[in-house]
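Here is a protein:
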Amino acid sequence: MLIVPKISASWRSEMAGRKIRDEADARRCMAAAAGAGSSDLDWAHAHGVDARSLRAWRLNLGRRRAERGLRLVELVPSSSSPPPARYALAMGDVRVEFDDGCTVETLLKIVRVLRAC
């Protein structure tokens, strides 16, 4: 027959220690544990900190650090189109240069003005 000692309901809260409050608290605890040269578990038990909470923070902060190294980059194909064509219109001693960006309306206005001169 196996005899198991009766453990009070407050056992978990007494053994677990305090939860880590936030990221700053977690970083302080992790630095203290590293500085002490002991494992997180041993340090947590010695200082009344919930070791599971400390471990969870260490894992989550490690994931954040790993994710910071990843970046999404949009790849856009480079345009290898030739430079826009240049045109020259000469009427007498007047020369007008334009490119493909010139509208027909603008070109007609220029020709009308030149004819009127």
Notes: Residues 51-68 form the longest helix (18 residues). The beta strands are 86-91, 94-99. The two ends are 121 Å apart (CA to CA).
